[in-house]
Amino acid sequence: MSIVLHSECPYLLARMATDLEMEGVKNDRVWNDCYNPFESVGIRHLMVQSWFEFHTHDCSKTPIKLTSRNYNTVLEKVLKTIK
Questions:
Q1: CA 25 – CA 9 distance, rounded (Å)
Q2: Distance between CA 83 and CA 45 in Å, rounded?
Q3: What are the pLDDT digits (tens) for 20-47?
Q4: The whole model's pTM is what?
Q5: pLDDT at 56 > cutoff 90
Q6: How many domains does one find in the chain?
Q7: Domain that holds residue 37
Q8: What's the sign of the alpha-carbon dihedral 39, 6, 76, 68?
Q9: Which of 20, 22, 31, 75 has the maximum number of C-beta atoms within 10 A of its C-beta?
Q10: How far is Cα 19 from Cα 28, in angstroms, rounded to an integer?
Q11: Coil vs helix vs strand at 45
């Protein structure tokens, strides 16, 4: 199962990616070396499965809105879903 997160803030997406890596989720480095929220225009989505990738689109899923207020709740939900 995959989850797609959406945020207008690249820092929140990067923070989520870092926290996921610290929890053992793999980073799709080939993809993310080309596309990341700081260097690519329009990156506003993070798709998480057993790995994670940054995207410009919602990957045909309804994204979960990621904000600074719901960050911890979303992180817990993601970890419960993929583990």
A1: 21
A2: 20
A3: 989 988 877 665 556 666 666 677 888 8
A4: 0.81
A5: no
A6: 1
A7: 3-82
A8: positive
A9: 20
A10: 15
A11: strand
